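Progress against Task 2.4 (sequence-to-structure conversion) is shown through the following example record, which the project officer requested during the mid-term review.
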Amino acid sequence: MSIGRIICLLVLVCVSAALTAGCTSYTFGDVAYADDTLHVMVNSGDEPRQVTVQVTIFDTTGFAQAEVYRKAEYLDLVTGGNEYLVPISLRPGTYKIYLYIMVDGARTTSVIRDITVP
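Structure tokens generated for the chain above:
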């Protein structure tokens, strides 16, 4: 391999490292509703950190969609699994749950989950 190719590869590795430095990985796990509480699992692959979690719930029963809940609040995540609890009384029906994680004002993770409340 020529010196030029080695230098090019080293530059690419350095640029990749610089672009991904400080990146975190947050994911949403299971979402369940029981006992007037929405249980949301939040997984963090990074060091403990405070993030903003936003939950928006839409009632999708029938042929309409109506927002029934929206809240954003700070959550102190630890490495691994974190359970986030949302106390809310939902009537039987179907719901779309929009979940967002924001770090320093920038959205890093978002997901939509469907649940049915019997």
